[in-house]
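As a next step, the fold was encoded as tokens, giving this record:
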Amino acid sequence: MASFGRTSRARLDTAHHALQKLFYEVVKEFDCTIIEGHRSEEKQLEMYKQGRSKLKPPHSKHNSSPSMAVDVAPWPLVWPSKSKRPKTFAKDLGRFYMFVGYVRAKAEDMGIEIRCGADWDGDWEVNDQNFDDLPHFELVQG
């Protein structure tokens, strides 16, 4: 059974208790790392300017305290890259989608309503959006 390291625990501690509860369950069966919980408004603006977020501060769910969003990825972390890893790109990307499916199923089992950056409208159709943020999970409440 996997568990979070010190850095992931510290990042997850900045998130809403429902997200903490969810990901402490997820990591038991699907090893993962917490990339970010709470995000400062300065960092949010930087992410927006880089095109890595569609929201200016303070409108991201990462900007609240506790954070209503977390960025989480399967561990070991291997970012899908067509240029750096062309032979494994499809499998690297597929691993993220498997992780998203696992997290969504676990959240549903636990009665925690989330949405994710792989399927913003939650219809299980991933080709109907134009901004993918595969590590992003947020609470629907709030």
Observations:
- The chain has one domain: 6-139.
- The domain at 6-139 is CATH 3.30.1380.10 (Muramoyl-pentapeptide Carboxypeptidase; domain 2).
- The helical segments are 6-12, 17-29, 41-49, 89-110.
